[in-house]
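Team,

Forwarding the record for the chain on the shared tracking sheet. I've put the sequence and predicted structure together so nobody has to dig through attachments.
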Amino acid sequence: MGGDKMALPQGTLDLLILRTLALEPQHGWAISERVQQLSSDVLQIPQGSLYPALHRLERGGSISCFGRERC
């Protein structure tokens, strides 16, 4: 069962990201690492899911980027 993946309910990734960012501002990869750390390596967010979720949250006004000219 080591390679089995569990499907998370829709919206869970967004909530994990928002909860992580509520603690402190972070860049994308740090968000992924923090979720993995807090879940004792149970949850691992692939880049192909993380960055589209971050862009979706930004377009929706839930988060904003800073420190770069273009996000």
